[in-house]
Amino acid sequence: VQLQASGGGSVQAGGSLRLSCKVSGLIFRNYAFGWVRQVPGKEREFVAEVRLSGATIYADSVKGRFTVSRDNVKSTVYLQMDRLKLEDTALYYCARKYGKEFVNWGQGTQVTVSS
Q1: What is the pLDDT of residues 55-84, one digit of tens each?
Q2: Exposure winner among 59, 76, 77, 114, fewest CB in 10 A?
């Protein structure tokens, strides 16, 4: 199983980025996926999840600014990030949901928000 995240970069506060996560090695439509972020020295923080049905869950810190979605044809998960804040700076990982845990972490993509 491989999850390849991309789309990170540097952006000014208030800007937007769209992350993508290409998944291979499993039947994509059978699983939920999510995004988790991590800042050096801190624990990983849940960001968003998209379920098999397309239903979504968000952390309070990103609700109303981020949108998670999935494309079952392209086996890809997306995270549209709008109105970015300095505190959104982190390494963003996509992962597969298994039970209550996230597994099969990708390599991460860096998002840096500057003032």
Answers
A1: 999 999 999 999 999 999 999 999 999 999
A2: 114
